């Protein structure tokens, strides 16, 4: 499912559904903090912290895609990513993403290569939505 930052993609035909958002908050841990402090002291890069941020981005993308799919969408446009430290200096990294869920008109030739997979995704989401008593939060436990 495409996640893009462009607000109005050229030659895309779609219906706007709703805003989608996701958050990931990860503790850095003592060794990560020590590694990050050493990198800060020496002026180097902290691969450990970069991996934590990358992991947070991945989690947010999965959550955005799921939220979009559950409302019948098949792409997300106008995506924004924000990063922050939370927890009052306790070493918690937060990644937040938001965008606009859309339903692409799949008959458009721009999506010929993705038509089958997006149609399959839509069918599978329909099956999930027909299951009894599922709550959105249950997918993340």
TrEMBL record:
It comes from the Bacteria. SUPFAM superfamilies: YbjQ-like. InterPro entries: UPF0145_dom_sf, UPF0145_YbjQ-like. Transmembrane segments: none annotated. PANTHER family: UPF0145 PROTEIN YBJQ (PTHR34068). Belongs to the UPF0145 family. This is Heavy metal-binding domain-containing protein. It comes from Pedobacter petrophilus.
